[in-house]
Every structure is written in structure tokens, then in C-alpha cells.
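Supplementary Note 2. Why include the ligand at all?

Several targets in our set were suspected to adopt different conformations when bound, so apo predictions alone were not considered sufficient. For every target with a known small-molecule partner we therefore ran a joint prediction. The input for aspartic acid is given below.
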Amino acid sequence: MRRVVKFGGSSLASAEQFEKVGAIIRADKERKFVVPSAPGKRYPDDIKVTDMLYSCYALAEAGKDFSNEMKAIKARYQEIIDGLKLDLSLEEAFATVEKNFKAKAGKDYAASRGEFLNGIIMAAYLKFEFIDSATVIFFDEDGKFNADKTNEVLSARLEKCEAAVIPGFYGAYEDGTVKTFSRGGSDITGSIVAKAVKADVYENWTDVSGVLIADPRIIKDPKGIEVITYRELRELSYMGFTVLHEDAIFPVRQMGIPINIRNTNAPEDNGTWIVESTCQKSKYVITGIAGKKGFCSVNIEKEMMNSEIGFGRKVLQAFEYNCIYFEHVPSGIDTMTVFVHQDEFMHKEQNVVGALHRLANPDVIDIEADLALIAVVGRGMKSVRGTAGRIFSALAHANVNVKMIDQGSSELNIIIGVENDDFEIAIKAIYDIFVETRL
Ligand code: ASP
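The joint prediction is reproduced in C-alpha cell form.
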């Protein structure tokens, strides 16, 4: 068995957290490839090292004095080194960082130092080899992650080592210039490493015991999810689940490597398994509920629309020409509705309306704002009758007016449109009926 283990920022925020991580790694000989994030928050009002680096670099870029900010960053690392009683000095590494900040090496370079320096500490602490991710993770000229080259170089490199620390979040262009993934990107690095070593499992250690059925800011102490499929997670992440970076699924998914989300502060918990497919039924019919506010619906009416070939294409073209993504397109006999992101659509609405008239010549266009979309996701829905009925009766009881219903042909999810103001009430009602009362 081979396990790749990734630790998030809160798992590495202090020496104490590092010790927990060390104990987890040493508890299992299969945990040989470690991907660390930068030190995160030690307490709620604390600042993540990555954010400190961004602010510090902003000063450097503006040609201002950044010595105090750099001192504070150094102190964060020194506190960890001292706490772990390591015989390690980052003086030289920091001298290089300062020199490169002065030379305006770039925002990505600056941010990546959080993981780079933490990786050096982690490697010294575990006595594992340190591999600079800039030498094994590559981006194309246009900034796209180069999966093929990375996999080739990284797997050859890792084959040669017993145990290694590969810092998360960054890689480099062909010419060696450092580039980062988007925020939270260490999750992607972990997945890339898991693919490269053909791991049996990718363990993603964080500060919660797995994925929760619903957002804890809306539902008090929601239940956890034991097993979820990649597809279910993808649907939920798209609609706002934040447990893992959206793009982290892709590398492991190609190889069918399961992801196990675990809690560094409660290592005995099994966490959540994210798998390709499973015969395990989820406990509650639905696997999760997620949603987002801030949508508009553009309702287009035209008599006999259904018998006009190409009508749908013309409607969507009006959005395409204005560079607007659409989310859902439910349709009736003489109506078609396009759901779009309100902030994107707002400034262009009259251009879109004009384009719709020119291209599709509808009878009426009606725009409605301040809508929310809720995704109820579950592989179990396919085989259980009455799921949609239960959702809508729960919403009716909660006095929520349903604006739109869209069920994908995979029967994996049901998307419901409601008013922004009804968003939390609707999620509570759905959670209640499936999880709390299990009616
Ligand atoms: N340190 C980076 C961030 O704060 C990347 C990560 O933690 O995954 O976004």
C-alpha cells in the first residue's frame, strides 16, 4: 500500500500541530509522500502565512520597506523550528527570498514560499527528502497545468526516493519561473503526487472529520458523509462545498485512487471516503445539499417556440456573444428560461435583451433577480421513489416558493431555484426531511 498524505494549513500552523502530523505519519509506514501547505491560522483571528506573504510582497512590489512584514513571517517559522527543537536554520533561505522580493520575482513566487519553507521544515522534522515542486510540477506558457510532463518527471523522480516531502500549491513554467495554482491549491498537488506514485489512497488531512452533508453555517452540527463519489462531490463543490479544491479530483479520478478526508485533530475518525463508485448506500438517500445565492432568470416566451428549429441555439447565442455563462436552461412549450450569475449579467442585461430580440425574435422577455440555486445530490435518489415529492412537500410546508426545478438525466441531483431570502429556510427544510426526521 502506498499513501500520499497532504496536510492543510491549520494542521501545520504551529509546532504542536506539526507534532500531531509527525505522529500520524510515523503511525503508518505507508505514509511516505507528504504534501504540506503553508502554516495556517493558529486561532480564528490569526493570519495565514500565505496572506502575510501576499501583503509583504505588495510592499516590495511598490518599492516600499517590507522588513517588518518579513520579520513577522520569519517569526512564524522560527516558532515552529524552536518548538520542534530542530537543528535547522532558514537564514540562508530567507536571504534568498528577500533578495528575490527586492528583484520583484512575482506574486506567485512570493506566495509559494509559504509551502516551500514549510516543506523544508517538514522534511527536516521527518528526515525525508525535500523535493522543490518547481522542479517536478509544470505549467505551459499559457499558464495551464501540464499534466503529462508533470506526471512523467514526477513519477520518475519519486521512484528514486524512499520518502519525500513535496510542497503544495506551486510548480513552475518551462523556464523555471514559479507559478501557483489558485488558492487552496495544495489539494491539487496532493492529487498530482498520488497519481504519480500510483497511490492506493490519497489522504487529505484537514481540521474537520470529513465532508458534511450541509453547510454548518446554515445547519447546526450537520451529520458527516461516510462515502461520496467523485461525481457527487463535483456537483456539490460546484454549488459551494469547500472541503477540497474543485480541481483536486481530476488527477486521482483518472486512476481511480480514492481520497480520504481526515482530521489531524481527531485521527481516530474515519473521515470521508471519496471514491469512483461504490455499492455502499448513503445513509440518508441524499448525500449532500449545497447551494449558492445571486442568480437571475431570463424568461423568454414565444408562441409556437417548440416548432421552431434552432430557437434554443439562437437564445443561447445571445448569451454567448456577451460572454455570459449560463447555469441551467429549463424549458416549457412556449417558454425557455436561462439562469445566469447576477453579478456577471447585470451590466450586460440590455445588450443580452437586444441580442435576444435580434436573434430569436421572442414575444416577451422577463428578467427576475435575487434567486438562489440549491443542489440536492445523491447517488441513492435513482433507486428510491418519491425523492422529488419529499423535497417539494418539505418546501411547501416551509412556505418556500419553488421557482425552478431541474433534474439531470443521471438522476444524481435535483436543482431547485428559490428566492435568495428563502435559501436558508429551504436548505433546513430539505435537511430536516431527509436527515433529521428521515420521513
Ligand atoms: N497556502 C495556500 C493558500 O492559502 C495553498 C493551500 O493552502 O492549499 O491558499
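The chain has 14 helices and 16 strands. The chain has a mean pLDDT of 95. Comparable summaries for the other entries are listed in the accompanying table.
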